Structures are given as structure tokens and as C-alpha cells.
Fold each of these.
Amino acid sequence: MVRVSRQGRSHRGKDERGLAAPAIEFRHVDFSYDDNKVLDDLSFQVAKGEIKIILSGSGGGKSTILKLILGLLIPDAGQIFIDGEEITGRDEAEMQQLRDKIGIVFQEGALFDSLTVHENVAYRLQDRGLPEEDIEEEVGSLLRFVKLDKEMDKLPGELSGGMRKRVSVARALIGNPRIVLFDEPTVALDPPTSGTICDLIIELRDLERVSSIVVTHEMDVVKYLTSEYVRVGEKGDIQFKDEGKKLCLTNTRILMLRDGREIFSGTSKELIESDDPYIHEFIRGTELLPEKDESQRKAVPSHSQERVLLPHSVSR
């Protein structure tokens, strides 16, 4: 039975106390598939302009969290808030309005096979009836950003796996969403493409103050997202920098799950210093790849120096 509380409703962007609300909040959420409990009393927040990395082994409930945020699943218990508004129990029409404001990069890409790259990215804006010149400008900017402007007339079947993922990212950014969900964004990608995707996520955090959830099981991605940041230089150029060993990026936090429950929430520094045996083995790569086979690990490379600015980007 679904328990729904309407006391959690608040004014848009504010919590019950009138303070700025998190972009996303789970309060004591349970969810099961039949008799298999996937999430057990899960509570967490994603602040505005923050990346929340959700980390667990396979089948740990990571993707279920994204489906709950989108209203594709309904929790068995607990409450879910988006920008201070409780979404638990909303009807489909209300949820569709919410989904239009959230970007999602699915693990499989989920592109329309019969549409070209350009059409896949543009269709959401076309559904809203925007002027064609505005659509062309935004789609062109996003495809240049993901370095696929020369492939815009191709079908998904003509692209590599990495290219399809980049189209999915461009489509997720259409309409300038303030929340973007990434479901295993780098899985099965080559290192250069993985680096491009990670750089994009960092730019959204630091330049656009977009709130993101990144679902992953790859520690290389976690290390990259929690150690790199971007700033705009004096000449308007985008500069990526490493935080250094003594610093900690507090706007990128990690939530680690095991058997549907939170076993860790905090910064990368706190994760590394944890004395929990399961966490220790996980971050050393025991679950991902045997430590003795270090040469096979995928390292996320440094970013490309040549960059294209996002549409709707902050003033330079």
C-alpha cells in the first residue's frame, strides 16, 4: 500500500520552513519489486548546483531511484520532493509537466531509431511549438558541444556506441533543464568519450549550477568527478583544474548503497578514509575489477582543451 502525505507540500522552491529547498529530496523511501526490497528507508538530498553520485554494485537500486524521481515508479512508502514540491501521488498529467523540466541520459541511450540525430535532439522543442529558428540554434549549439554537428543527418544505427551516448546527452540538455539525471553515463564507452561526458557533467555543475544525479559503479568516474572543477578565465576561456590532494569538492557528494540501504553519505575524502570493509574493498576495485589486473582498468582521461560553450550558458 502506498502511503502518501500531503503535509509535505510546499511553495515551489521552498521547504516547509520557507527556506530554499533542495533540488531533489527523498524522505524514508521504500520500494520493492514483488517480494524483493530494492530501497529500504532511503533518505537523501541533492542541493542546487550539486552532483550526487549514487554508487553501488549491480542491482543495488541505483536506476530505481531515477525512475522514482521521474514518476515512472511509485514508492511503497515515503516522500519524494522536486524543488520543494512533493511528487508522491501526482497524476500522470502533472508528472509529464515535471519530466519536461528534467533531463535524463538513459544507460541504453533510448534514441528513436527512425529519427536522425538532429530530429532526436529537436523533438522536445518541436512538441512545445517553438519557432523553427530557435530550435535550429539550440540544437546546433548542443550538437557542436558534443562534437556531432557533422553527424546530424545520420540515423542512430549509423553511429558508434559513444556517439549515440553523446546524442543522448545533447537531447537531455534541450530546454535548459535545471536537473539532469545520468544513468551509467560512461558504461561501455572508450576513455576519450568517457572524459568528454565527465567534463560535460562538471561544466553543468560549475558554470550552470545544474543539479545532477550520476548513477555509476565505476570508481574512475567517481574519482574524476570529485577531483576536477572548472572556472572561466580572464579571457572568457574555460579552464579545468584539479582540486589537489589537500582539497575536497563539497559540491560533489557520494551516496553509497548496499542491499537498498545507505551505508555511506559524504565527500570523496570521507569515502576514501572509511574503515568499512565493504567500502574499502569496493573503492579498491574488488567488485569492479581484480586489483591484480590493474592494467585493464579504464582510466578517465584529461579533458580536451578545445571546447564549445553550451547554449543558455552563464555570462562570460
Amino acid sequence: MPSFVQVHPYDDHLMVNPHIWGQPASANPLLQLRNIDGGEWFQRYGDSFEAVWASARPWAPDRQE
């Protein structure tokens, strides 16, 4: 189970880097996903990235949550 996932979009590609709990960064895979017809992984990771991005707020060091 990944502890977190980095998603880096560019053009019609997504670089997806799932970080596995307890493993060094060098042991984690880097997946390159292309946007192709019928491809579900690109769409799912892309939708997830867009949802997080849409809910993001600028960092304000003095803001109390």
C-alpha cells in the first residue's frame, strides 16, 4: 500500500511515483502513463490530480487551521 503518490502531468503523459511505506526512494517505481483511447489508468490518476489541484489553496505560513 503506497503511503503517498506523486503525480507529475505534462502534455499527454503523467509521471506517477507511488511511494511504498518503509522503502527508500530508490526502491519505488516510476510509472509513465500515456493518454491513449480506452486507457483507464491515465484518466484515473489525471482525475485524482485535478481534484486535489482544484481544492488546493496558496500556502500562508501565518494561517491557523
